[in-house]
Amino acid sequence: MKRSLLLSLIVALMGFTTLIAEAQISPGATPTLEKYPWTDKELLEPSLLAATIKKGTQKPVILNIGVVEDIPGARHIGAANNEGNITKLKEAVAKFPKNTELIIYCGCCPFTRCPNAQPAFTTLKKMGFSNVRLLNLSTNLKTDWIAKGYPVVKE
User: Fold this and answer.
1) pTM of this prediction?
2) Do 30 and 113 form a contact (C-beta atoms < 8 A)?
3) Is the pLDDT of residue 79 over 60?
4) Which of 17, 61, 78, 115 has minimal Cβ neighbours within 10 Å of its Cβ?
5) C-alpha span between 56 and 15 (Å, rounded)
6) Alpha-carbon distance 155 to 151, whole Å?
7) What is the spatial distance between Cα 7 and Cα 13, in angstroms, rounded to a whole number?
């Protein structure tokens, strides 16, 4: 009887501990990648884009959907969490074929928390673009691009 009571108490405490732990996760906590509109295959490593730019051969359309420095060849759209900039994004790509390679990036913060990546990516997909990629800036543009010596536009 005592074992049964003790076991019940332990199980209850474990459940209570789980509830407390779940309650302490902030609403802004970084969710898993499964909750994003892009897949792992739709992430582009910075080294690959830098190599493409360096080669100077066929370049994808690069769209800066944030408020960070421009990568050479990028069209500066501005923060995509702003409806006016979403309109600007739509206008910038409207004439491209739907299979055009579009690379979007912000780099203000890790892309998993970026307020601009999801609206831009989702907008382009809803427009029917089939080759949209998000630059994998897991920390930010400064750390994952500039500090590695990849090119930025000098003003």
Assistant:
1) 0.76
2) yes
3) yes
4) 17
5) 58
6) 13
7) 10
